[in-house]
Amino acid sequence: MSCHEIFSHLRDTTSSIAVCAFLGIASVVLAIFTVFGNSLILHALRKCQTLQSPTKALFCSLAFSDLGVGIVVYPLSAVFCFAAVFNNIEVFCAIQYPYLIVAYCLGSVSFLTMTAISLDRYYAFTLRLRYRQVVTFKRVVFLLAACWIFGLIWPFSWLLSHTISKIVATTIIFCCTVITSISYIKITVGLHRHQRQIQEQQTIPAPQQHGGNHFSIGQYKKSLNTMILIFFLLIACYLPHCTVIAVSMVIGNNSSVMLAWIITAEFIYLNSLLNPLVYCWRMREIRREVLIAMPCFTS
């Protein structure tokens, strides 16, 4: 669909123009909070000494992609919406492709990083003593570099074919969701089996330590629950938009579908604000560093 058709759909009714105005204002406000929150998280990760380097690199990648949403995607979304409100089709068409490309780029990086985090948690549980030998900082950085390079390149397929772009996006979301879900399911089953063995033996105290201070079941379960929560939030934010895309491929595009498209896109960007809140809520070491960086709250 051309930008002229999208523009006409968004200006089809007074209510759609009002929704665009609301989304434009909300994008500006949420951009400020998203940049502020993820900047604090990156500062806290830099100061935090308790997280292992590979895990810290994964968290930093996710925080950087969320920060990019606040710095780039939200402002472009605001301009996109305000151009429709003020009937400026030149700006609307000029901003459409940069907006979609950057949004797809950061969205794919977030999904790939979440998949890498799930695999990191899986290897931490299955490898135990060998975890530090197998999951090294260099290997994680190499993997993250590949995720970012792929995320920067593939969205340009939108310029070649909208169909190809949708197929690639659907494939990425499906594969990442399946891999992440399987990893967390296997970990959860393994933890329950491990706890049953402890209860049967009645000889190993809980929480159990493997290899000295290297692996703590209690700390691992807390970290795992945090990452599962972040993953569920990611799925919850992306699911409405994916549903709209599926509906548009079946019934075609009209004013209602296009309006639903830009509304559900805002839910995706909202995930970049929710992640810092989860970090501060669930991770004590991150929360402590954030409070130190904000003297007005330390009292």
Automatic annotation (TrEMBL):
Membrane topology note: Multi-pass membrane protein
One GO CC annotation: plasma membrane
Transmembrane feature ranges: 16-45, 57-85, 97-119, 140-161, 167-187, 228-252, 258-281
Cited Pfam families: 7tm_1 (PF00001)
Any one GO molecular function term: G protein-coupled receptor activity
PROSITE patterns: G_PROTEIN_RECEP_F1_2
Keyword annotations: Cell membrane, Membrane, Transmembrane, Transmembrane helix
Principal cellular location given in the protein's record: membrane
The G-protein coupled receptors family 1 profile domain, residue ranges: 37-279
Signal peptide (UniProt feature, chain positions): none
Location in or out of the cell: Cell membrane
Protein name (database record): G-protein coupled receptors family 1 profile domain-containing protein
Organism: Desmophyllum pertusum
